[in-house]
Specification:
This protein is of the alpha/beta class. Helix content is about 30%, strand content about 20%. It has a seven-stranded parallel sheet, sandwiched between helices. The longest helix is centred in the middle third of the chain and has 20 residues. The mean pLDDT is about 90.
Length: about 290
Amino acid sequence: MIVVVAGCFGFIGQNVCTYFAERGHEIIGIYRASIPKEKIKIDNITYVKCDLSIYSPMIEKVDVIINCAGNIGLRNMGGFKGQDLGTDKSIVASLVSLVQKVNPTANIIHLGTVDEYGKLEGMLHESRICKAISAYGRSKLEATNYLLHKVRNENIRAMVIRPSIVFGPNQNSQMFLTTLLRTLDSNRMFKMTAGEQTRNFIHINDLCRLVEIIISDFRSGEIINAAYPTSYKLKEVALAIASNVNKLELLGIGDVDYRSNEIMNYLPSSSKAEDLYGFSPQYDVLNYPKF
């Protein structure tokens, strides 16, 4: 199978490239910025720097395009401008345009985010109408809505995966788990809120496995949450991980106030992935980094 991975040097993109390359697939990793110094060195991964709006020959024979690209910087924005919402949509629009022109039978898998749901109460099932509030969530939701519109009206073959918080080795340094482990490892106090926020975490290996399952049984137009069956309070996660590395005394739970716009409960449902694909995540964040 020939797989194009857009955003091949991000945390998720790198792992997707490695996962499928190690299973014998031919990988074309595409990117827009510079190549990292420590790029993946696997024989059957080809890296291509390109403008998606004009570069098309590589799309001619591919089986699937996995879009891991996006503007991660939007995670850290409080306010945002109208043009910020077009960040992810423009990437998806370029991929759709290439497929329409060059290879209409190619499947597209777009990685969105559970942030698209926003401040909805209760379980976050894929059928619910999203009310994204963050810049990152709204940008991803714009891309999702655009892509599904193309599926309904122009016969594009595409699916959307909405991961919860993806974790694992080499995760973005600003994410909660990475900051927690780095701080504890340096024997410094980790100051955090009271930790009553409920969050859901999925390991990068589980996410890659779900992508592989979906490719083998592609159902165009579907949205699938990639989530662990159990969500946890951040306090539970911090206590478990600090205990795993024997640094409980360095936890400063309650030392930081909640943000004014804090979303307290994220409860993405994992039932659809289980019902349609028999998918069950293997990695529980409470055991991290022991496994």
